[in-house]
């Protein structure tokens, strides 16, 4: 499971409005991977990957296992 941070299509559209990429045509979570949250985007300007670096979860895991970063 690699989708640690769920993002709605509307939230992604609001974030991506700051960039000149056009409308979202397709927005899909990528379940593969182990560390970050990734979404596959098809937009007016092309195909993109939105990656969210989930550091909060890593810090929580390190605290739970009593490791330090």
What can you see in these coordinates?
This protein is an alpha+beta fold and 69 residues long. The chain has one domain. Helix content is 28%, strand content 30%. The protein contains two helices and three strands. It has helices spanning 9-16, 55-65, and strands spanning 24-30, 37-43, 46-52. A three-stranded antiparallel β-sheet has the order 1-2-3, with no helix packed on it. A hairpin with a 6-residue loop joins strand 1 (24-30) and strand 2. The two termini are 23 Å apart. The relative contact order is 0.22. The mean pLDDT is 81.
| Percent range for β-strand residues | 25-35%
Shape: globular
Helix count from the secondary structure assignment: 2
- As residue ranges, the low-confidence spans are none
| Largest β sheet strand count, sense and barrel closure | 3 strands, antiparallel
Rg measurement, Å: 14 Å
Structural class: alpha+beta
- C-alpha end-to-end distance: 23 Å
Helicity level:
25-40%
What is the ordering of alpha helices and beta strands?
Answer: HEEEH
The residue-averaged pLDDT reads 81
| Cross-sheet strand order for the largest sheet | 1-2-3
Task: Give the domain tally.
Answer: 1
Number of strands: 3
